[in-house]
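Why does residue order matter? Because the sequence determines the fold. Keep that principle in mind as you read this record.
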Amino acid sequence: MDNWAAELRAGKPDAAWDMFLERYRRLIFAAIRHYAQDHDEVMDIFVRVCEALREDDLRRLRHYVAQPQHRARFSTWLVTVVRHLTIDWFRHRDGRRRLSTTVAALPPLQRRIFEHVFIKRRSHIEAYELIRTGETPALSFREYLAELRATYRAVNDGRRGGLLRELGGPPPADLESDSPHFGDTLEGRELVARALSALGDEDRVAVELHVIEELPAAEVARLLGLRNAKAVYNRVYRALEVVRGQVARAGLRREDL
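Structure:
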């Protein structure tokens, strides 16, 4: 455990906080930027995250430090906490109000799609089957995809897709592509998303920071408490091989990843 934890155990929350923030500031910002792009939003969320972590003399941090055993590295736990706080920030700021207004204006079929995908958090394909076997038996899959995409456009309204993916999953692939291979289809994209979500917390965070956020391996090693950049490369390589193996069995080509 870092020096900040020792200060926290010694009953010095202010000193612990200063050390903690110096150590993990970049990791917090990286986790926030996965969902927010606008500079003002990022800074507002960062302030909210700091406020939440400082509440009750660093209650969240004290709870983690006090655990006799930890199922994940502290950096992985912290990314998860920041992720939840970021999503809550969006939802409390304008999410519920904007979504409720948007949903009220949607056509009936799109309201049903919203209910299944965004509220009940069903997969796109599962939502289609439920709608088709229910009140709209004549709905073709192509027609459904067009309505699904229209629902995403209405809900997203130009906002960065990270928050939307958290609520409803990635948007469907474009219909206009000619003879798309499996990796460009709705099924393919959902398969990749499921494969990534099946990774362990530490592997998923390493992939996100190094591949998605494009942080140097040495910086990722420092943030995640790994031995060196080589340890990051090995972890990311193994994680991507797991993903490739899962999707290859379903027909997605290796070069698509």
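DSSP finds twelve helices and no strands in the chain.
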